[in-house]
User: What shape does this take?
Amino acid sequence: MIRSATSGLRPYKAKVASVSRGTFFYQCVYLLIEPTKEVVEASAHCCGHFGYQSSTSYMPHLSLLYQDLTDEEKDKAVKKAEELDKEIGGLEFEISEFALYKTDTEDKSLKSWEKIEVCHLDGK
Assistant: This one.
């Protein structure tokens, strides 16, 4: 399933733009990733494979915290993340694999989440 979706993708670099907070449970506190050409193209490649068309613009990110928090609590969490790693903004790392999970968005414990497949990006 995901192997065919990632066909042709090679490992690529990602860079953290900032620690940010969102407005709902699944985007409570996250690392905002710079939308570089490689990041955006990888998303478009996989979305195209599955026929997915989003009604909103793509916001690459890595979630740090799933939780229902007040705005004040979210701000404290962002500040704490920045204090724990003062160089988090600008951190670069390689994306070399994708994982596909079956998720139930009603399950806020995340216990029902199931890893379906992991695919290493090798350009084939």
Summary: The two ends are 15 Å apart (CA to CA). Residues 40 and 76 are 30 Å apart (CA to CA).
